Amino acid sequence: MKNKSIVPTQRERVMREDDFIVSKTDPRGIITYCNPIFIEFSGYAEAELLGAQHNIIRHPDMPRAAFKLVWDTIQAGKEVFAYVKNMSKDGGFYWVFAHITPDFGPGGQIVGYTSVRRCPKRSAIEAIAPVYAQMLAAERAAGAREAIAAGTQVLLDLLAKTGKSYEELVFSL
């Protein structure tokens, strides 16, 4: 469970070009595997991560609608790519370009998820951060009950304005 006592700071950790952060979860988002790079950037010990909800690293600058999009996509059995701002145990943050895929069991059911994150381009962060800020502002203005719908609408308006699908937008950054 996310520790709500962690205070976000402006300390950024920047991934190295050849870093890959890897984690696996069960279908409910409970971490079952984390590689050493994930441990390093998260600031948590492996024992603190294993068995914890993956949202332990969720940064409050991330809109709820972004995570709804990710969950809806992977629970439908599809892969998703996304830029994500994560929060370390010390309150610092790090941006990632995430590729999240469902893992299927022998009967075709989803048995978990694998996420591989790499170093994002600085230009992509500079492009997506204001979008996330607009989504988050819309969520806060709408209130808890309508937050996700309000944040999603900001993203849908952007996609309509650019004439791109979500995937096209992500890969164009």
Would you mind describing this structure in some detail?
The longest helix is centred in the C-terminal third of the chain and has 21 residues, at 122-142. This protein has 173 residues and is an alpha+beta fold. A five-stranded antiparallel beta sheet has the order 2-1-5-4-3. 39% of the residues lie in helices and 23% in strands. α3 (64-75) packs across α5 (147-162) and α4 (122-142) crosses α5 (147-162). It has helices at residues 36-42, 46-49, 64-75, 122-142, 147-162, 166-172, and strands at 20-25, 31-34, 80-87, 93-104, 110-118. It contains six helices and five strands, in the order ββαααβββααα. The chain is globular. It has a single domain, classed as PAS domain (Beta-Lactamase), CATH 3.30.450.20.
List the helices and strands and how they pair.
Layout: E1 20-25, E2 31-34, H1 36-42, H2 46-49, H3 64-75, E3 80-87, E4 93-104, E5 110-118, H4 122-142, H5 147-162, H6 166-172
Antiparallel strand pairs: 1-2, 1-5, 3-4, 4-5
